[in-house]
Amino acid sequence: MIYLDNSATTRTSPAAAGRALDYMTQTFFNPAAAYSPAAAAEREVNAARATIAGAMGALPEELVFTSGGTESNNMAIYGSLNAMRGTGRIIASAVEHPSVYEVYRSFYRTFDVQDAPVTPQGNVDMARLEQLITPHTMLVSIMQVNNEVGAINDIPAIYRLLKRKAPEARLHVDGVQGYLKLPFFARDCDLYSISGHKFHAPKGIGALYIKKGQRFAGGQIGGGQEGGLRSGTTNTPGIVGMETAVQDYVQNADAYRKGMMDCKRRLYQNLLRLPDVVLNGPAPELGTPHILNMSFLGVGGEVLLHALEEKGIYVSTGSACSAHKKGKNRILNAMQVAGERQEGAIRFSLCPENTLEEMDATAQAVEELIKLLRRYKRR
Hints:
Layout: E1 2-3, H1 14-25, H2 36-54, E2 63-66, H3 69-81, E3 89-93, H4 98-105, E4 112-116, H5 126-132, E5 137-143, H6 155-165, E6 170-174, E7 191-195, E8 206-210, H7 236-251, H8 253-272, E9 277-280, E10 291-296, H9 301-310, E11 313-314, H10 330-334, H11 339-343, E12 345-349, H12 356-378
Parallel strand pairs: 1-11, 3-4, 3-5, 5-6, 6-7
Antiparallel strand pairs: 2-8, 7-8, 9-10, 10-12
């Protein structure tokens, strides 16, 4: 098997899974309980909070644990707007993940909701964003990394722009595809979303960074866990498993990032030699190390996906959250990728476990298949 859909989810690392298992079967106590084994579990949760926050220069008390990226994104938006008075402008990029984009759409009746356009490479158009930001702007959501094509947004520059034009506005960053994959400093935004299963932690665990000192209404209401901002029984196995995955990534960050970029370049160079193949997004060295999006003209992306699947190679045609929705790709549309190019788009997303040999094998399989599929389509 060659697994190249790591932007959808990653394999939980054996170390993270093993630690999570221990906290399911041995140290299974509820950290909110009063007896000493529970207090020990609470200390482990707090230590994990410090590790995960520290990986982006945040304080432990600025991190709230959630169930994953969707909850973190939802909480960031609802928790911010519910803590603000009045209404004004809120801005999200046109290529945001549905867990941001659809939340913004739900506010069209009460806020001045604006979509920030993107360039053909998938980055936010900074000139257009500057025009959209007014003194009445309340919240801006911009993803750190475009999850379909790997474009990287200049978050520090966006933060400076926002604070210059609307000092009271907040910047929320969807960091689901960026956390650990790229160097990042939490002070360059007000809120930052994380999802553990994107970096070899268990599914069902994530976090939201909330900069200290800002008013925030929180998320789920109940028993008052997470400082009263997100109620619900603490997912101790998920949290310690995520800490283990973060520790591994931090210790090996340079090697992991280089390895993924080397694989991405190798795959790109191999595929670019094939006829009628087009890159979607930025040049490989200008994008994130782990995402490559290519269009194979004259071949349906879904057809190629299933043909590769028969060879044990797993890729995607876009976001896993939109895989079962019919119709055009909103993200590629916003990038002006349309027609035959959009229909033939495939996303290859990597992780540190992938190898150069896998890139060669994948390119060879793609070459064989597109020759066959194009011949069949012409008939």
